[in-house]
């Protein structure tokens, strides 16, 4: 069974920053097994930040890899997750990121985690910390509709009253990879209360050394 398809179709964009949508980087048969091997809900850590800061959010998180080292969360997921995490740290995957968005991530340290969004969960518009070089968000839901919310929003600034430059429905084999810059504004729209399932993502963050 193919774990990671690094020849999957990609739609590349240069505006308003470097980003791309990849289709079925994780093939659906593999994604199905990953969903079956998710941790128990109580193993996820609630994460919430409110107020007037530059980034607010609400979600649940299970860190798997931090700066290249295993986190305790690795003991909570199944064998297929261990295989995926290994492949996501490979030279072949790093080369794929370079080919996809034109950013060299050869010498970066990786954070990998499982992010779960329930009804009302969201992330406000932000650009990420300066030490981050690139991010790849892989959507694991097989069937997700626009009315379920939770879209990835490509934005031109922090003002949420302005319509997004582009949106990506978080499912159906899609994933989003983008380069961090001072212009890389992005957000996650609130998940609808009536969404029939949790919004499931595997997030790969590539950080500068030091």
Automatic annotation (TrEMBL):
Residues 17-207 form the Prolyl 4-hydroxylase alpha subunit domain. One of its GO terms (molecular function) is L-ascorbic acid binding. This is Prolyl 4-hydroxylase alpha subunit domain-containing protein. The lineage of its organism: Bacteria, Bacillati, Actinomycetota, Actinomycetes, Kitasatosporales. InterPro entries: Pro_4_hyd_alph, Pro_4_hyd_alph_FE2OG_OXY. Its cofactor is L-ascorbate. It holds the Pfam family 2OG-FeII_Oxy_3. The keyword Oxidoreductase applies. Keywords: Dioxygenase, Oxidoreductase. SMART domains: P4Hc. It comes from the Bacteria. It comes from Streptomyces malaysiensis. Signal peptide: none annotated.
């Amino acid at each position: 069974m193919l774990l990671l398809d690094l020849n999957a179709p990609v739609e590349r964009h240069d505006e308003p920053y470097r980003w791309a949508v990849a289709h079925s980087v994780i093939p659906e048969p593999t994604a199905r097994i990953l969903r079956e091997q998710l941790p128990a809900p109580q193993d996820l850590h609630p994460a919430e930040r409110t107020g007037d800061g530059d980034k607010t959010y609400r979600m649940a998180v299970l860190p798997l890899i931090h700066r290249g080292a295993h986190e305790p969360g690795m003991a909570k997921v199944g064998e297929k997750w261990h295989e995926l995490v290994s492949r996501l740290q490979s030279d072949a995957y790093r080369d794929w990121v370079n080919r996809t968005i034109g950013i060299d991530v050869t010498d970066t340290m990786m954070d990998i985690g499982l992010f779960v969004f329930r009804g009302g969960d969201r992330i406000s518009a932000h650009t990420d910390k300066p030490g981050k070089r690139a991010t790849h968000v892989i959507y694991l839901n097989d069937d997700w509709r626009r009315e379920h919310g939770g879209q990835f929003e490509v934005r031109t600034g922090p003002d949420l009253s302005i319509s997004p430059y582009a949106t990506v429905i978080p499912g159906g084999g899609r994933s989003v990879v983008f380069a961090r810059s001072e212009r890389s504004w992005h957000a996650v729209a609130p998940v609808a209360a009536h969404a029939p399932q949790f919004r499931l993502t595997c997030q790969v963050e590539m950080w500068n050394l030091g």
